Amino acid sequence: MELADQIILFVIALIANLFSAFSGGGAGLIQLPVLIFLGLPFAIALATHKVASVALGIGATVRHLREGGLERRFVLLLLLAGLPGVLVGASLILRVEDRLAEIALGALTISLGVYSVLKPRLGLELEARHRDTRGHVAGGLGLFLIGVLNGSLTSGTGLFVTLWLIGWFGLDYRRAVALTLVLVGVFWNGAGALTLGLLGTIHWAWLPALILGSLIGGYLGAHLSIVKGNRWIKRVYEIITILVGLQLILKG
Q1: Phi (first) and psi of residue 39, to 5 degrees
Q2: Per-residue pLDDT tens for 22-47?
Q3: How is 141-199 classified by DSSP, letter by letter?
């Protein structure tokens, strides 16, 4: 691959992952279509994107761990409930091609942004709820289903985790985004990348530029989310969800 192409991949990864780390998801909105446009088949592009997305999580983790605030109960819940769903979804995607599901997911993703817009106070302050056993079980089931989507579909599922943590457990945007980036970015995407790598093919030659852009973008996006606070994160989240939804509906 030419140096110019590597620079293009780096810039694309930097921009995509900066916005993703700021809003809690959506890197695939920009990054995955570019990989396909540059000539990768869908399954190879998806596996390569998943590997690069782990670097996003690592970059964001470095910044968020300096701030603290990752509650142990949610860390365990995202791992125990979400990872099995990711493995199931990643195993299915290489055999299932369902355009209708992507359109439905796109419409649902847009609805997340619209819902946040219609709820001006949503996620601006911590309002703890559903913290009993029944609430954790129901919350875990929701995370498992989102994990299936994360493993099998291209982009935007981190946005679902962010809003689920806010809507069900009452987290504010900053805490929810931090958990999403650390747990989904590193562990969910790592499990998905491993599964897709074992069952499919990863385009290794493109990964250095993608990983470097993702690491830097993840760190800078996490820094911006911490500095700007919940109101800015909420606005960027709403924009990203609507754009991701439109991309899912209109692509192809």
Answers
A1: 120, 0
A2: 887 777 777 877 887 788 887 788 78
A3: HHHHHHHHHHHHSSS-HHHHHHHHHHHHH---HHHHHHHIIIIIIIIIHHHHHHHHHHH
